[in-house]
Q: What sequence folds into this?
C-alpha cells in the first residue's frame, strides 16, 4: 500500500470512528438511545441570573434550574397557579393606612398594603455545587480562594468538592433584594419598586454603598428591605403597596426564585469573573435540572439534579388531554428525562435538516419549510404533508397570548385625537388593512385576525360573533366578515377625506408609516400595506429606520403609524390594557403606551378593572373597555400569532403552555424508538464518493495524457 | 531586520489609535449609550432610571471624547473613549455587555476558527496553484480555455450557494457528514470536513484564475526562454523556475491573510455552527455590543499589521534583492 493510500485509509477509519453509529451524527460520543432530549437555541442567552433573565431564550434555561414559589399547572386551562416550592398559593391580606386588617372584598381605595405570606416546604435541597462545599471542620472550602485558584478551571465541574444545603425562606428574601442591586440592572426593578415596599429605597442605598466602594461586592444581608422579610426558617412575607392582584403571577417567574448567599460569595472572589464563573453564567438552583455544561457558543447541557426534591406528574387534566395521552404518566416522578442537550443552531436550514434526520426532537416551522411540512384542508385546517406523516411527525398548534398591532400616534395632528372625525378616520383605516389577507399571504395562515387587545386564552377574551370588533367586522349568516371597503370609504368621507382628499384643502391624504423592517421580505409586506391604503386612495409613505431611531421616534412621539407587538407576561387582561392606559403614555412618562392613547373613561375603567377578581363583574368592565378602544381605534388590531410546532413520534407530553417556562420536567421520550428511526433515516449513501473519484479521474486523465504527449513531443 | 520590524511595530500604534477612533466614531454616530442600554435591558418595563443605572454600571455615563467637567489630562482620560480603549493596547479587552470576558472568549473561539480557516488556506493554496499551473501548462489549448471557463463559472456562483448545496447533498441527502456543529479534539474532524470542502471549492475559481495570471506573466519572461533553451523539461520549468519567481505576488496575497485566519469566516461559521471568532463578531454587531465590536476590530487591525510585516519579511526570504533596513 502506498503512503497516500495509507493516509486515505487512516482518514476514513478516523472518520468512521468519529461518526459512531451514523456518519452524520452531530453528537459524537453520545448514545442514540440515551434518555436525553435534543433541542437547539438560535441565539445564545445573555443572562442566566434570575434577577436579569427575561427573554424567552433565557428563561428556557432558568425555568428548569430555578424554582420560584409558584408555577402554572401543566395541563389545566385557563392557566392556573399552583404551588412549586410553596406549601400553598398565598392569598393576600389587606391592610389599611393605619395597618389594620381589611376584609378580602374591601374596596381597593382603602387598601394601603397587600401582604403575601409564603411558606415553603422544608427539606428542599440545592443542586450539588462547590459554593456549599465544607471541610471536616465545617469551613467553606471555596470561600476564601487565592487569586489564581480559578485560573485552570473551565467548568464548575472542575472544582473537586461540592456540597448542598436546605432551601430556606431567607434565600427568597435575598433574591428580592438582588432585584434592587445596581450592578444587576434587573429589568423588573423599575416596575417592582413601584409595588414592593422599600425596594426603591433599597436600590438607592445600594447605589450609594456601591459608589463608596467601587468594585467591591455588596453584602445584601446587611441591608434591610421593609417589603420582604423572613418570618421563620420556612416562611417569608412580601408587602406590596395598595392592591395589586397581578403580583401573584410574578411569583411564578424566575425573578422571585431563591438565591443562596453562598453562591454570591463564591462567585465574587477574585479571578472568578475572568473565567466566566458568575451567577449570570453558572446558576445554582433547586430545580429538576442543573446546568452541567455551559458553552453558549456551542452547546448547553442540563442534567437531572440528583438532589431534586421530587414532584409528580399531574393527574388532573381534561378529557382531550387524556385522549391525547397527556395523562399517561400521571403520578410518575419528575423529571422524566435524564438530560437535555441544547445546541446552538443559528440558521434555519441546518436546524430543519437535523430535525428531519431525527437529531432534534422538535422544531418550529420556518416560512422556507412551511410548504414542505404543512398543507391546508378544504376547510382551512392545517395538516401535515405526506412526507411528514411518513416520518410519524406530529403537528402542535396554539394561539400565542400575544398581539400585533398597527399603532396610531394619538398626539399626531392628522391621525391622533379623540374627536369623532379622527375616530372615523382610524376606523376606516382599520377596515382597509385586511389582516385576513395578510395572514394568508405572509403568515401561511399562522395568525388570527385580532378583534381587540385581549388574545384568546386570556380572561376577558370573547370568542365568536359576540366577541367581534363591530367597527371593523360584521356577522353575516353566522360568519364573521370584514366590513366592505365601501364602508371604509364612507367613514373616510365623514372624517373629512372623501376619496382620500382633504375637503378643506383638496390635498391628498398622505400617511407615514415608521418601520425598522428591511430586506426583500419586508418590502413585500410594506408594498402590501401601501396597497391596502390605495383602496381608499390614501397614500402611505414608508419611513424605514433602524431599531434605535425607531425607538427614539416612538419615545418622542414623532411617529405617525407604526407596528408593534406585545407578549403576555401573565394571563391577566391588565397585562394588555395597561398598554393603553393614559398615565403610561410613552411621551412624557416613558411608559409602555406607545400610541399615547389617553381616554379618561378608559383610564377610570382600567383602574377599576385591574384590582377586580375574575368574574362576571370584571367581564362587564372589560367589555366596556373593549368597546371604547374599538371605537377610538388607537390601534389597528392586526393579529394574534398562531404558532405551529413539529415533534417526532418518540416525544411525549407535549402541550403548549404559554405561561409556564419549566415544562421540560414533564417531557418524555422513547429513546429506543429514536435510535431505531435515526439509524433508519441516516444510512450513508456511498455511491457519490465513488462518483466523485471517477469525475476527478475524468478531469485528471486527459490532462495526464496530454502532458505525456507534450513531454514526448518535447523530447 | 530587527530594527525594521520594531519600527513597523511602533508605526502600528498611531494606526491602531486611528482605527480605534474611527470605530468609536462610526459606532456612536448610529448608536448612543442610551440605545445600547435599551437594547440590553430589553423591550419591556425599561425606565429612564434603569437606563441611567445600566450606563453607570458599564461606564457609559461619561462624555464620549471630551470631559469638560474635568481639568487637565482627565479632560481626555475620564471619557468613554479613553476608558474603553486604553486597556486594549495591553490586550485587555474587558467584558462584553453580556458580562462575559472578551479575552477568554477570543482564546476559546480562536481554535474552532483556525480548525476551519487553516486547512482551507493550505489546501486551497495547493489546489489553486496546482490548477493554475495545469492551465498554464496547457495554455492556449482547449484544456486551458475549459479551465478558465470553469473558473469563471465557479466565481459566478454565490458563496452561500456552495454552503447550501454542500449541506443539502453531502449532509442531508447522502448522510455522509454532520450538517453543522462542532466538537473538541479528534471528534471535530467530521464537523470540519464539509466546511473545508465547501470553502476550498468556493475559492477555486478566483484563486486559480489569479495564480494563472501571475504564472502567465512569468512564463513569457526571458529567463524561462533561457531555461527552455537549456533543454529543461516543461515540468521543471514550471515548478523550479516559474513557481519560484511567481512567489512574490503569491506571498503578497497569502502571507498577509495568514494572521487573519484567526478571525474566522462570518458566513461559513454561522451556517456550519462553528463557534469561532467570525460568528462572535457578527453576533456582537447584531447585539450592538460595542465592547466586543471594538475588541474584534482592534484585533483584526493588529493582525493585519502583523500580516503586512510578515509579508515584508517573507519578501526578503524569497527574493534576495529585497533587504529590510
A:
Amino acid at each position: 500500500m502506498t503512503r497516500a493510500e495509507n493516509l486515505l485509509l487512516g482518514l476514513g477509519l478516523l472518520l468512521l470512528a468519529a461518526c459512531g453509529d451514523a456518519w452524520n451524527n452531530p453528537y459524537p460520543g453520545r448514545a442514540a438511545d440515551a434518555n436525553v432530549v435534543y433541542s437547539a437555541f438560535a441565539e445564545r442567552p445573555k443572562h442566566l441570573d434570575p434577577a436579569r433573565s427575561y427573554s424567552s431564550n433565557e428563561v428556557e434555561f432558568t425555568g428548569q434550574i430555578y424554582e420560584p414559589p409558584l408555577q402554572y399547572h401543566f395541563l389545566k386551562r385557563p392557566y392556573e397557579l399552583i404551588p412549586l416550592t410553596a406549601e400553598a398559593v398565598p392569598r393576600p391580606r389587606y391592610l389599611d393606612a393605619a395597618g389594620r386588617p381589611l376584609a378580602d372584598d374591601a374596596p381597593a381605595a382603602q387598601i394601603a398594603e397587600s401582604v403575601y405570606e409564603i411558606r415553603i416546604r422544608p427539606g428542599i435541597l440545592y443542586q450539588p455545587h462547590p459554593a456549599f462545599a465544607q471541610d471536616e471542620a465545617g469551613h467553606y472550602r471555596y470561600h476564601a480562594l487565592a487569586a489564581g485558584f480559578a485560573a485552570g478551571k473551565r467548568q464548575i465541574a472542575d472544582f473537586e468538592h461540592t456540597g448542598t444545603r436546605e432551601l430556606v425562606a431567607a434565600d427568597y428574601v435575598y433574591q428580592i433584594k438582588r432585584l434592587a442591586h445596581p450592578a444587576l440592572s434587573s429589568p423588573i426593578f423599575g416596575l417592582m419598586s413601584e409595588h414592593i415596599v422599600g425596594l426603591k429605597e433599597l436600590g438607592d442605598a445600594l447605589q450609594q454603598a456601591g459608589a463608596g466602594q467601587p468594585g467591591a461586592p455588596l453584602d445584601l444581608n446587611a441591608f434591610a428591605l421593609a417589603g420582604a422579610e423572613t418570618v421563620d426558617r420556612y416562611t417569608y412575607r412580601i408587602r406590596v403597596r395598595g392592591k395589586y392582584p397581578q403580583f401573584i403571577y410574578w411569583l411564578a417567574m424566575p425573578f422571585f426564585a431563591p438565591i443562596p448567599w453562598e453562591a454570591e460569595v463564591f462567585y465574587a472572589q477574585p479571578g472568578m469573573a475572568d473565567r466566566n464563573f458568575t451567577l449570570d453564567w453558572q446558576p445554582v438552583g433547586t430545580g429538576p435540572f442543573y446546568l452541567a455544561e455551559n458553552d453558549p457558543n456551542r452547546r448547553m447541557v442540563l442534567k437531572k439534579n440528583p438532589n431534586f426534591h421530587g414532584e409528580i406528574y399531574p393527574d388532573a387534566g381534561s378529557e382531550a388531554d387524556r385522549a391525547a395521552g397527556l395523562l399517561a404518566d400521571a403520578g410518575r416522578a419528575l423529571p422524566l428525562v435524564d438530560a437535555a442537550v441544547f445546541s446552538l443552531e443559528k440558521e434555519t436550514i441546518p436546524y430543519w435538516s437535523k430535525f428531519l434526520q431525527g437529531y432534534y426532537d422538535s422544531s418550529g416551522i420556518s416560512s422556507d419549510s412551511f410548504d414542505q411540512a404543512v398543507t391546508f384542508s378544504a376547510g382551512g385546517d392545517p395538516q401535515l404533508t405526506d412526507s411528514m406523516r411518513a416520518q410519524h411527525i406530529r403537528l402542535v398548534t396554539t394561539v400565542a397570548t400575544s398581539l400585533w398591532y398597527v399603532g396610531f400616534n394619538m398626539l399626531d395632528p392628522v391621525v391622533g385625537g379623540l374627536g369623532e372625525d379622527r375616530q372615523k378616520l382610524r376606523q376606516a383605516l382599520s377596515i382597509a388593512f385586511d389582516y385576513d389577507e395578510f395572514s394568508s399571504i405572509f403568515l401561511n395562515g399562522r395568525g388570527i385576525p385580532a378583534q381587540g387587545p385581549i388574545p384568546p386564552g386570556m380572561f376577558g377574551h370573547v370568542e365568536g360573533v359576540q366577541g367581534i370588533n363591530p367597527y371593523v367586522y360584521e356577522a353575516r349568516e353566522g360568519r364573521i366578515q370584514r366590513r366592505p371597503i365601501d364602508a371604509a370609504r364612507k367613514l373616510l368621507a365623514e372624517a373629512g377625506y372623501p376619496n382620500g382628499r382633504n375637503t378643506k384643502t383638496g390635498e391628498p391624504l398622505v400617511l407615514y408609516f415608521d418601520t425598522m423592517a428591511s430586506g426583500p421580505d419586508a418590502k413585500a409586506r410594506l408594498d402590501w400595506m401601501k396597497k391596502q391604503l390605495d383602496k381608499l386612495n390614501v397614500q402611505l409613505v414608508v419611513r424605514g429606520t433602524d431599531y434605535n431611531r425607531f425607538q427614539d421616534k416612538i419615545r418622542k412621539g414623532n411617529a405617525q403609524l407604526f407596528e408593534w407587538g406585545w407578549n403576555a407576561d401573565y394571563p391577566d387582561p391588565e397585562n394588555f390594557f395597561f398598554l393603553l392606559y393614559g398615565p403610561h403614555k410613552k411621551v412624557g412618562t416613558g411608559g409602555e403606551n406607545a400610541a399615547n392613547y389617553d381616554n379618561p373613561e378608559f383610564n377610570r375603567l382600567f383602574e377599576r378593572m385591574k384590582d377586580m377578581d375574575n368574574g362576571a363583574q370584571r367581564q362587564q368592565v372589560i367589555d366596556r373597555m373593549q368597546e371604547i378602544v374599538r371605537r377610538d381605534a388607537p390601534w389597528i388590531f392586526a393579529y394574534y400569532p398562531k404558532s405551529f410546532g413539529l415533534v417526532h413520534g418518540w416525544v411525549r407530553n407535549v402541550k403548549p403552555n404559554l405561561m409556564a417556562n419549566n415544562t421540560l420536567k414533564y417531557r418524555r421520550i422513547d429513546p429506543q424508538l429514536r435510535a431505531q428511526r435515526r439509524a433508519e433515516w441516516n444510512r450513508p449513501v456511498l455511491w457519490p464518493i465513488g462518483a466523485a473519484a471517477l469525475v476527478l479521474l475524468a478531469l485528471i486523465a486527459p490532462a495526464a495524457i496530454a502532458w505525456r504527449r507534450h513531454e514526448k513531443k518535447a523530447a | 531586520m530587527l530594527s525594521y520590524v520594531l519600527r513597523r511595530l511602533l508605526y502600528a500604534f498611531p494606526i491602531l489609535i486611528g482605527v480605534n477612533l474611527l470605530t468609536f466614531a462610526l459606532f456612536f454616530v448610529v448608536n448612543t449609550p442610551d440605545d445600547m442600554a435599551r437594547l440590553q435591558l430589553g423591550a419591556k418595563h425599561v425606565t429612564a432610571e434603569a437606563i441611567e443605572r445600566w450606563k453607570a454600571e458599564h461606564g457609559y455615563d461619561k462624555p464620549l471624547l471630551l470631559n469638560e467637567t474635568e481639568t487637565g489630562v482627565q479632560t481626555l482620560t475620564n471619557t468613554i473613549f479613553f476608558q474603553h480603549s486604553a486597556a486594549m493596547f495591553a490586550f485587555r479587552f474587558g467584558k462584553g455587555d453580556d458580562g462575559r470576558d472578551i479575552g477568554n472568549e477570543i482564546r476559546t473561539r480562536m481554535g474552532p476558527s483556525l480548525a476551519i480557516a487553516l486547512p482551507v488556506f493550505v489546501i486551497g493554496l495547493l489546489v489553486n496553484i496546482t490548477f493554475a499551473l495545469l492551465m498554464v501548462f496547457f495554455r492556449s489549448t482547449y484544456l486551458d480555455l475549459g479551465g478558465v471557463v470553469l473558473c469563471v463559472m465557479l466565481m459566478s456562483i454565490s458563496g452561500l450557494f456552495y454552503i447550501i448545496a454542500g449541506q443539502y447533498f453531502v449532509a442531508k441527502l447522502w448522510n455522509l457528514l454532520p450538517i453543522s456543529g462542532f466538537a473538541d479534539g479528534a471528534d471535530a474532524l467530521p464537523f470540519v470536513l464539509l466546511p473545508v470542502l465547501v470553502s476550498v471549492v468556493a475559492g477555486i475559481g478566483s484563486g486559480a484564475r489569479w495564480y494563472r495570471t501571475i504564472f502567465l506573466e512569468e512564463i513569457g519572461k526571458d529567463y524561462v526562454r533561457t531555461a527552455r533553451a537549456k533543454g529543461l523539461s516543461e515540468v521543471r520549468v514550471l515548478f523550479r523556475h516559474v513557481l519560484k519567481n511567481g512567489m512574490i505576488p503569491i506571498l503578497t496575497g497569502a502571507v498577509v491573510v495568514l494572521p487573519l485566519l484567526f478571525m474566522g469566516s462570518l458566513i461559513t461559521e454561522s451556517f456550519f455552527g462553528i463557534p469561532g471568532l467570525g460568528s462572535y463578531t457578527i453576533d456582537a454587531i447584531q447585539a450592538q455590543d460595542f465592547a466586543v465590536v471594538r475588541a474584534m476590530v482592534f484585533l483584526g487591525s493588529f493582525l493585519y499589521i502583523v500580516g503586512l510585516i510578515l509579508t515584508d519579511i517573507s519578501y526578503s526570504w524569497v527574493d534576495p534583492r529585497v533587504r529590510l533596513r
Remarks:
- The longest helix of chain B spans residues 102-137.
